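cache lookup: miss for this entity combination. No prior model stored, computing from scratch. Input as submitted by user K.M.:
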Amino acid sequence: MSFIKTPIKGMPEHLPRDMAVREFVINRIKENYGKYGFSLIETPAIEHIENLSNREGGENEMLIFRIMKRGEDLERAVETGDPAALCDCGLRYDLTVPLARFFANNMNALSLPFKALQVGSVWRADKPQKGRFRQFTQCDIDIIGDHSNLAEIELVSATAGMLHELGLGDFTVRINDRRILKAMAAAAGFPEDRYGEVFVILDKLDKTGVDGVRDMLAAGGFSAGSIDAYCGFFSGGGKEARSSCSGYFAGRLDGVLPEGILSGLDEIMRSAGKIMNGGDIVFDPSLVRGMSYYTGPIFEIALADTSALSLSVAGGGRYDEMIAKYTGSRTPVPACGISIGLERIITILKDRIDTNAGKDSAVYLIPPGADSRRLEELFIKAKKMREEGKRVMISPKNKNMKNQIDRLLELGYAEFIELAPEGEKTLNVKG
Amino acid sequence: MSFIKTPIKGMPEHLPRDMAVREFVINRIKENYGKYGFSLIETPAIEHIENLSNREGGENEMLIFRIMKRGEDLERAVETGDPAALCDCGLRYDLTVPLARFFANNMNALSLPFKALQVGSVWRADKPQKGRFRQFTQCDIDIIGDHSNLAEIELVSATAGMLHELGLGDFTVRINDRRILKAMAAAAGFPEDRYGEVFVILDKLDKTGVDGVRDMLAAGGFSAGSIDAYCGFFSGGGKEARSSCSGYFAGRLDGVLPEGILSGLDEIMRSAGKIMNGGDIVFDPSLVRGMSYYTGPIFEIALADTSALSLSVAGGGRYDEMIAKYTGSRTPVPACGISIGLERIITILKDRIDTNAGKDSAVYLIPPGADSRRLEELFIKAKKMREEGKRVMISPKNKNMKNQIDRLLELGYAEFIELAPEGEKTLNVKG
């Protein structure tokens, strides 16, 4: 049997320096969201295949890592000759499906509205490629049981606060609403059964511009009148025009959009905008987001990168209909969340964070054959130093001590003491 | 398609109160081991099936959650008609196999000796039963690249320090050595190809006593002389006799055990024993441990439970031959580790820890139709309080406010303010 030393393709390994940054960022995220009243929960990595393949997960459902049945169940499944029957569960591809199931299963034990924070791995069997992993970490906050836009305001404010605290204050929140997307398509006169296609095309506006969208719609055989009317919604104005969505539409959606939706979105923008620390929040009528389960406001947050490219780091929205599918009740359960991609934030922060700052530490190097009584004294002394909070490494001295010290300097150790035969000898090391 | 609200059988869900305890304990463990110079690393949850089924994992290899191949690989495998061909990877069942692979893959980037800390989920497809989960968390520390018993001393000391810091100072470390186990079997004259069977029987001594071991060996057809000689090794003395293993054997293993092994074990006990804070370390000639990969000292740590039962919380040992199988080199890479079962520690601690201690917090309850300008003022005020470190929950006021407040009291909130039409109104709530 051969042993394979490389990880499965596309799966990440985190070395000490990388992990120190991850821990630093994750702890800040937990702390910050904790101050907004979000409570950590955790769900299993493995979910029923029925829940993962329920057609709410969009393209992610094609990327499931499927787990085989076990024991007699597997034997019976093999006999059927149907490969689909071999699998009964899979690894979660996001934290929203598990949260909806978790809430339905535990709702009687939870305080409502329930403000959940999750930090966990998700898995997608994507084609491995540079910078895209098949196991990665999502940080999700969700508010379940609040139908008012207090939920959206708190989600956006908390995430803005978190980005600010991490030193990522230069960001833009773009906001839209699923119902506005539908109203624009209705106002343009597209047939309702083809809205999905229209949104897939609209989603490419960032890359192709309005003219590209126009061409793709024409290629799709939509009527010229509809295309003209539709594209008119996306040609308007700069940042100023996008600070209010009531203003943006100026009555153009009257009759196709229920009252209160535009003003509700404006309220979110105004309230969240007041506490943004340098970040921005704007209405973006072309924001689509892929998941089919969204029912109301949707948002996406992008950082102004040093390379002047915008980099999406978070996204989310309201999904008021998903949880009732798990509770089995007819009563809808309002829900709303934001998901942050940890790896993107870490890529940006990794060279900025000094994880060793303020850490008092020392290394004791032990040459071969050191006197055992002196060693015992060292153990006792080191124990005391550790109890006082100091980081103390006791390590055999390598033949190539220079290389050993260089590596330990990278881990943040500054003080090096050799337990030489004549006594402790502090080494003169340049950090 | 039906939605299932219960988790997969045997998979844990962690609610807010449970998670707060877990976070508290995990953070203390990380902090404590960090002070001993262990660096956090992380490996993927998924490993090559070849590495998981390499016959080093003992019974765990029968408990693998196997993951199906994907895309064309799956299609080709289905055509073969062989169910074993359908799987190319699986979920890890421990953190030692992934660490060995990780080290072999990254050794040029790591400082030697490499002191690794891992906190991560592992999965075992055990039959679900009360108190045993199919996804659970292990905390492992390992020292790779140190052949001296400095490694064992540091592992045991660091774990003793961690238990002490968690308020679990009343523990016993039992220590033995794989080579001593073999020497006892050799001295008793058992045939070498049946040592494995003998150790499986010896492993039951805790439950059956020496007489039970004697009966099982007889049932196995071993010679009476060998059984007598073997059982003689386990009849000796109380705690006093077990404080030194050289003393315990008093020359009885001369000729079957290389020099230095007994004195090396005594050195570990003496050095670690000096810094144990109330914990104990004793030699236990009947300690076996199941994994076949151990090559030297092995240990197990048990807590003196309130119910006076001893509860094993950690175990480990030296496995000098495993890593070379991944590096592919003939040079052995010394390695030694201890694994802690987080769930056991949490079971004991969960009622002792006040995770809300010292947290300043407040809840603002918002009645329906609250004035939006006053709400905006509240958002700004809450932002400031959060920046100053306070936990602030802003939540719609439920119809059943008493129930709402009771649940929030459980989450540690103490101060409740209603945004009433006439202004902020502090509620008189008894915690």
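stored under new cache key. Chain A touches chain B through 107 residues (CB under 8 Å).
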